[in-house]
Task: inverse folding
């Protein structure tokens, strides 16, 4: 059974840093993309950053130059380094991955979500 498990998050002061981590577990054939989304209260989930297995990276404009997405060498874990955090970055952050298994076509998997709160 494939799962996407994330760790990290918490409370940080404005201007501070946090790092989120996420790993795909279980038996699968291919991970095509891994990324991070966030959801503000009462709002729809939005893309923060995504990295494809060809190395292509996209960021939401509001986090460019502050957040960095990266993969481990095995390309089965994704990280989000968040610097210069602002109160408007406060949200629940979700890891996302598109994974193909021996019995399914590529489908989307979500982590359990983690709260990031930026406040003094």
Result:
């Amino acid at each position: 059974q494939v799962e996407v498990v994330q760790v990290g998050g918490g409370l940080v002061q404005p201007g501070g840093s946090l790092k989120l981590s996420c790993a795909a577990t279980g038996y699968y054939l291919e991970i095509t993309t891994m990324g991070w989304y966030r959801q503000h209260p009462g709002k729809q989930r939005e893309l923060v950053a995504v990295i494809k297995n060809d190395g292509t990276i996209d960021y939401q404009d509001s986090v460019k130059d502050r957040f960095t997405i990266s993969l481990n060498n095995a390309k089965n874990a994704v990280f989000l380094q968040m610097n210069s955090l602002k109160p408007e970055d406060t949200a629940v952050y979700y890891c996302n991955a598109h994974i193909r298994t021996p019995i399914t076509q590529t489908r989307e998997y979500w982590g359990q979500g983690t709260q990031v709160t930026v406040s003094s």
Notes: The chain has a mean pLDDT of 95.
